[in-house]
Amino acid sequence: MAAETNNMRTDSERKRRLQVAADLSDETLTAFVLAAADDRAAQVIADRRTSPLPAEFFDEFFDALAPEPTPALIDAAARLRQSVRRDN
Questions:
Q1: pLDDT-derived band at 17, boundaries 50, 70, 90
Q2: What is the domain extent for residue 70?
Q3: Which of 13, 21, 22, 82 is buried deepest, with most CB atoms within 10 A?
């Protein structure tokens, strides 16, 4: 993967705080900021690719699909569970 440059501007207090945290983590400022930004990006993407459902709705939905699950339904439910986050 080719390295690219991304210039950012910040105020001195934020830069100082980030530098202190990077030093305490024994990382460069760049590595620290990129790791934090990458973690946040992964979370935002995951959150947007899932739909929270109340547990009762989730359970009633699958119960209503078929009294006895068919192999196709079991497979579809497994795929859906990978992309839907249940709220308890």
A1: very high
A2: 53-87
A3: 22
